[in-house]
Amino acid sequence: MLINTAEILEQRKLYDRMPGVSFGNLCFGFMPAFMDFESGETHLSVNPDGSIALIHSLDSLPLEWISGWDNSGRATDIKETVAAGFVRGGDFFTLDELEEFGWDA
To answer: Where does the pLDDT of residue 20 fall: very low under 50, low under 70, confident under 90, or very high at 90 and above?
Structure first.
């Protein structure tokens, strides 16, 4: 399942508060991902064809990370220990951490 429009607008508000960073340019070096803080495992958000997604999608997550599905079998919820964020250079950043991130030139 893709993040809904309201959630995307909320993400955009967060990005707009980051100096020198726009919603669009986070794709350069920051890849949407999820981390299970229980296991420490991280997964990039990917499209059905395996390419890196530009937005967070639950559809590519391990089944054990999913806590709910809709009637058509699409993921709708993730377990409480999983968080959305971004990977850059092998490091995972939550949205809160990105707000505090020391942006380089």
So the answer is: very low
Per residue in 62-71, is it b (16+ CB within 10 Å) or e — as a string?
Answer: eeebbeeeee
pTM: predicted TM-score of the whole model, two decimal places: 0.70
* Bridge partner residues of 86 (DSSP): 32, 93
Burial environment of residue 1 by CB neighbours within 10 A (0 to 12, 13 to 18, 19 or more)? middle
Q: b or e along 9-23 (b: 16 or more beta carbons within 10 Å of the residue's beta carbon)?
A: eebeeebeeeeebee
